[in-house]
Amino acid sequence: MIDTDLLFILFIPWLLYRIIVWIIKKQISIKTEVIKALFYFSITFIYCLTLFPFPFYVYPHLETNGFLGINLIPFKSIYGSLTHFYYMVPLRNIAGNILLFMPLGFSIPFRFQVKNMWKVILIGFSASLLVETTQLFSGTRSFDVDDLILNTLGTALGFFSYRLVVRLTNILSHKNNKQST
User: Fold this and answer.
1) CA atoms within 13 Å, Cβ hemisphere of 127
2) By CB neighbour count within 10 A (0-12 exposed, 13-18 middle, 19+ buried), where does 145 fall?
3) Mind listing the pLDDT tens digit for each residue in 30-69?
4) Run of H or E residues at 138
5) In sequence order, which residues have a C-beta less than 8 Å from that of residue 45 and are 6 or more positions away?
6) Residue 27, SS3 per DSSP
7) Where are the alpha helices (DSSP H) in 26-116?
8) How far lies 11's CA from each of 14, 45, 62, 111, in Å?
């Protein structure tokens, strides 16, 4: 399970920072705070789960140089996960990598007003590449091109979810405007 102490430690500076901003500005926007928190905690969650992951399949005898476990063949580990006998392997590897980056793809357009799909996907890809490269030096983690693919797909799905929410919000507000006139 994710280290809740680590999340708590990362939450305290965020909370203190936002309280200081509120004291200085003397006003607060719930919408802005939610958008900023969504982005911050999506990054924090990615960091916690990729560098301090769930303790599945981590055995002391497998602790080694991260360079030995590199996978540069696209779809190799995805195929391995899909053909694994235990149903949790594809769920954890495929769905987990996609779901991990969806909040990032959803929050980037809100937080930074980046509406271009390719820019958001490039940011998600870059974040995933940074994570995968960092894992090379962890001792129990390694670089996997399939994680890049799945994380980037998650970012794209998060962006499409953002577009869907914006579209539905516009439809509902347009509908409410028609009813009030």
Assistant:
1) 29
2) middle
3) 888 888 888 998 998 888 788 766 554 444 444 555 566 7
4) none
5) 2, 100, 103
6) coil
7) 30-51, 76-82, 88-90, 96-112
8) 5, 11, 32, 18
**Is the pTM of the predicted complex or chain greater than 0.85?**
no
The CA distance from 57 to 70, in Å, is 16
Say which DSSP state 60 is in.
G
How many Cβ atoms are within 10 Å of 75's Cβ, its own excluded?
Answer: 12
Please state whether 113 falls in left (phi above 0), alpha (psi between -120 and 50) or beta: left
Tell me the C-alpha to C-alpha distance, in Å, between residue 145 and each of 2, 27, 46, 78, 101: 24, 45, 17, 10, 15
Tell me how far apart the terminal alpha carbons of the chain are, to the nearest angstrom: 52
